Structure formats: C-alpha cells, structure tokens
Amino acid sequence: MTPDHLNSDATDPGVYRTLLESTRAIPWRIDWATMRFSYIGPQIEDLLGWKQSSWLSANDWAERIHEEDRQKTVDFCISQSQNGVDHEADYRALTSDGDYVWIRDVVHVVRRADGSVDSLVGFMFDITERKQAEDKIVQLQRELEVLSYRDSLTNVANRRMFDTLYPVEWAKARATGEPLSLVVIDIDYFKHYNDHYGHLQGDDCLRRVAQALDAGASRSRDLCARLGGEEFVLLLPATDEAAARNVAERCRKLLAQKEIPHARSGVGRLVTISMGVGTIVPGADDDAHVFLDRVDRRLYHAKSAGRDQVCAAEP
C-alpha cells in the first residue's frame, strides 16, 4: 500500500466513524450555538440503555445525571466551556432502568478562527469499577482510622483517642462555661488476678470491666478509654461534680453485677475498682494536664484508703 493510499484512507470520514465506534469510550459532539448533539456514539445504548436517537440536546444529558451530582456538574461544565477551557467531569449518569453508572466526561472546546466557540467534543468513559475500587480504599482507610483510636483488647477507645478528645472538650468547656469531669479508674489487685488466673483470663477480665465502664458512661459525648494496663478514664463533658460521682458509682454497681471472681483480692472475693473523680469549669489560667494529675492523685488516694471506692475530693 502506498503512502497515497494511506492518506486517502485516513481522511475518509467512514474510517473515523469506524474507529470512534469500535472503542469503549463514547464519542460525542454538541453544537455550541444550538446546544444540540450533532453526534453521539452508539455505545451509549449498551452503557446507559438510552437510545442513541434520544440524545438530542444538552438538556437530555443534564436530565440523565444523578440528581445529587446534576447541578454542580452542569454548572462546572458550562462555566469551563464558556471560558473556552478544556475540562473533565466525574458524575453518576442514570441508566434507563433507574440504576446509575460512574462517567468521566473529557471535554474539548473547539474554536473558530476568530476565537469564538464552535462546538464541544469529547468522550465519555465508564469509570464505575475504578470508583468502586476508590470507594473501597476510602472505606478501608476510615476503618483503619477507627481502629487506630480503638483499644484492640477491650474495644473501648484507646489512649490516643483520649489524648485527642480531651483538649477539644477542655477548650469547649472553657468557651461555654460548662463543667468538665474526669473519672480515672484502676482495677484493684489486678496483678494478683493475673498471677492467679493467668493472662488469658486477665484479658477477659479487662474486657468485662471495660464493658461495665462503657455502659456506665452512656451519653453520646461521654468517652470511656483504656489508658493502658488496668487503668481506664471516663471523659464526661457538661457534667457537674454530683453527676460525675453518680456515673462513677453506677460503673461500680454495673461491675459488681458481673460478679467476676477474684480469689486474690485484698478487698473481697470479686473484682472491684478504685476511682478518682474531678470536675472543673476551665478558666484561662487552668491547665488540662494539671487537672488530670489532680484526678489521678485522687485515684491513688482511693487505693491507699482501702480500694473499692470513689475519691472525689483532695486527700
């Protein structure tokens, strides 16, 4: 075949059409003056179900965009086209049977010699599988983020979550003038428990204690977190001193109801907890770390005073 034959075939409109209609991408062209389709590939029927002949104007395109994506997609494409800017848009296109397909529309603005817009030409690509894969990755990332703030053993929040939320709730309490309460908890004689029952049983004990504490701090903004080992903390926003002490006592009762045997406890025959409670309306001169240390000292006072009790005042 000579070069002349090649040039002749390449300029044949039928060759262009065959090439366009053999690709999975869907070619289209809209006349700018009338906003009507002068062409759209027959592949559109296989992808969306709408007849090729039903794509008459830009309105048909807009009406077949998912309603949640429609306005922003149309506004973006019109703005870019009016400014003569080539662009891409991802959106959900509705199928004739009521489902949707993710589309990436790649748009090229064709100009006349004088610079005015003549038409828009482009390709639609089915990116549904890609979007589903991207959504799965985002979902996994969110799950991993949740897990990074969750104690893997007890399934309550971990120290990282407490360290993240505590300064936020502190700042909010200072801004609103609402009281903020902390309850720091330690399982009594837990080392003796582990030595006697073994670490597997000890892990189960930690889980059951965490369940009782999490149930005791029951409001949506309350946080139960494991600080490490056998130590836990309750972060109680908008909670005054009396209410915080009630939460602490409720947690002790819920744990008592579980009746977890502890043959090596120095205060009885069941697993118990000691708790330090503190409440503050943070002022400009108050420090969150100092307050946490104060509540922590109350916990150790409860332990030194005999354990299985709540200390809500300075020793």
Automatic annotation (TrEMBL):
SUPFAM superfamilies: Nucleotide cyclase, PYP-like sensor domain (PAS domain)
Pfam families: GGDEF, PAS_3
GO-annotated biological processes: cell adhesion involved in single-species biofilm formation; negative regulation of bacterial-type flagellum-dependent cell motility
PAC domain boundaries: 87-139
Residues in coiled coil: none
Reaction(s) catalysed by this chain's protein: 2 GTP = 3',3'-c-di-GMP + 2 diphosphate
GO molecular function: diguanylate cyclase activity
GO cellular component terms attached to this protein's record: plasma membrane
Domain (GGDEF) ranges: 178-315
EC number: 2.7.7.65
Every PAS domain range: 12-71
Gene3D superfamilies: 3.30.70.270, PAS domain
Organism, scientific name: Duganella callida
Top-level taxonomic group: Bacteria
Protein name, entry field: diguanylate cyclase
PROSITE patterns in the cross-refs: GGDEF, PAC, PAS
Enzyme class, UniProt record, top EC level: transferase
Family matches, as InterPro entries: Diguanylate_Cyclase, GGDEF_dom, Nucleotide_cyclase, PAC, PAS, PAS-assoc_C, PAS-like_dom_sf, PAS_fold_3
